[in-house]
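Archive transcription. Copying these from loose printouts into the bound notebook so they stop getting lost. Printout 1 of 2:
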Amino acid sequence: MSTEGYPYLTKLDIAHAAGEVIDIPSLVAANRHPWFNQTLCRVNDSVVRLGVVEGEYHWHKHDALDEFFYVVSGRFLIDLEDRLVELGEGQAFVVPNGVLHRPRAPRKTVILMVEGVGIVPTGDA
């Protein structure tokens, strides 16, 4: 599966090398897209991604990799098949691999994600 054909702005290129300062507030302020995802950096076999999101993502899953979400600001909801996970500022959650989920944000929300370098944000086929 790829990120093409979805209404999200997803940048999988690694924007910053190890040793660089990453200015999160500037990146957030410059964003105008309702569902923005930028890979910030690589840390060993994982990547850290910035999300500036509002609205709903689609239902999807990642067959072999877990996905970590940390809320910097706003309110972030993760629908699972059997429950709703509600996260506020400073809270985090790991969606285990293979679990069908749908992220959403009722208002502009800033999140950081940590996931395996090979993960495709839109999910596995």
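Printout 2 of 2:
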Amino acid sequence: MQYKIEEIIEFVKEETASKKVFENSDIDRDLGWTGDDFSELMEKYAEKYKVDMSSYLWYFHHYEEGNGFGSSLFRAPNELVEHIAVTPKLLHDFAEKGKWDLDYPEHKLPKSRYDIIANQVLFLIVLCILIYFWLK
């Protein structure tokens, strides 16, 4: 398909409520659009421009929302890789191709999300303490 870069820039402006968006604006770092907001933007982008996102790896592009206690002990996936900017130009290029076609650097993530496990363990400890005092 043929899309104009101006159309993609306008899409990003509307979704992020940003007035100044340029071809090379990093949506995460320059526009401050990260976490769940970034994920929602990418879902809307994929749907609107019919882009196959099966090879998309979020953790290269933006922060994760809602870091808890566990993130102070263990790093989240986005902290284990080098940031790659998602720009309107990149979105335009992949809309033209119809698929997310980024060649990610080789990387290795832990098999388990220890930051999330730590949050769950802390939650269970607090819950047990509360139940103990409630029953007492």
